[in-house]
Structure of Protoheme IX farnesyltransferase:
Amino acid sequence: MTKQVADQTIALENAVSLPVSDVRDYIALLKPGVMTLVVFTGAVGLLIAPGSIHPFLGLVAIACIAVASGAAASINMWYDRDIDIHMKRTQNRPIPAGRVPADEALSLGIALSIVSVTVMAVAVNIAAAVLLAVSIAFYVFVYTMWLKRSTPQNIVIGGAAGAFPPMIGWASVTGGVDLNSIALFMIIFMWTPPHFWALALFRCGDYAKVGVPMMPVVAGEAATKKQMLVYTLLLLPITLVPVATGLLGVFYGVTAALTGLWFLRHAVRVLRNAEERAPHKMFGYSILYLFVLFGAMVADVWLDGVIA
C-alpha cells in the first residue's frame, strides 16, 4: 500500500468522528518507552566515561539524546503509517488512528533532529553531535526506509541505530571514541537481534500481513530461534570486554556473567519450547537484562570510587 493510499484510508476511517489531537498524541510519536532505554544507556556511557563534564552540560547531552530518539521515532511513524494501520500492535498509534496528521509528524521529527544535533554541537562537542546525527540518519534512512522492508537481516544491521547512545554519552565527556565505547556499542548491537526476534515470534502474523520480512516470517520459527541462541551466546563474552580492558571490575563482571547466563537460559527455552510464552518471557527479560547490565556499570564505578 502506498503512503498516499494509506493517508486516504486513515482519513476515510476517521471521517465520521475525527479524534482531536492533544499533547499525549505528540508525546506518543516520540515512543517514550523506547526513549527511556535510549536515555538510560546514553546516561550510563556519560557517567562511566573517563574524565569529567559540567553537570549542566551532562544534562544537556542526555536531553539531546532523548530529543534525537524522539525525532527518529516520529519520522519512523510517519514513514510506516501505511503498514501501521494494518498491524494490531501499531494501529492505534497517533497517525493511523487519525489523531495526528502525517505531515505534522514528519515536520516534528525533522525539527527535533536539527535542534538536538545543533545543541549538542554548540553546547557539548562536535564528536558527540556527529555520532548523534549518524544515529538519527541510520535509524531513519538505513533501517526504516531501506532494511526494514527489504531483508530479514533488517534488525541485525538496523539495530546499530539503537546501539549509539552509550557511545554518544561517552563522546560527550571524552570528545572521541575508543575501544571501551565501542564495547558498549557492541553490547547493545548484539543484544538487539534476540530481543527483537523474541517480539517478532509472537507478532509474526502482523509482520506477515503487511509484508515486512522479519526473520520468523522469512526463515521460519525454528531458524529464528537458532539464530537467537547464537547471538545470545556471542553477547555473553562481549559484555565482559569492559572487565578485560580494565574499565569495570568484579561487581560488573559477576553481574554480567549471571544475568547473561540467565538470558542464555531463556534462549535455550525458546529453542526447545513451541509455546508463545517462552519468547514472550524472553522479550520481557531482555529489557530488564539491559537495564540491570548498564546499571551495574554505574554501580561498579561508584563502588570503585568508594573503595579507593
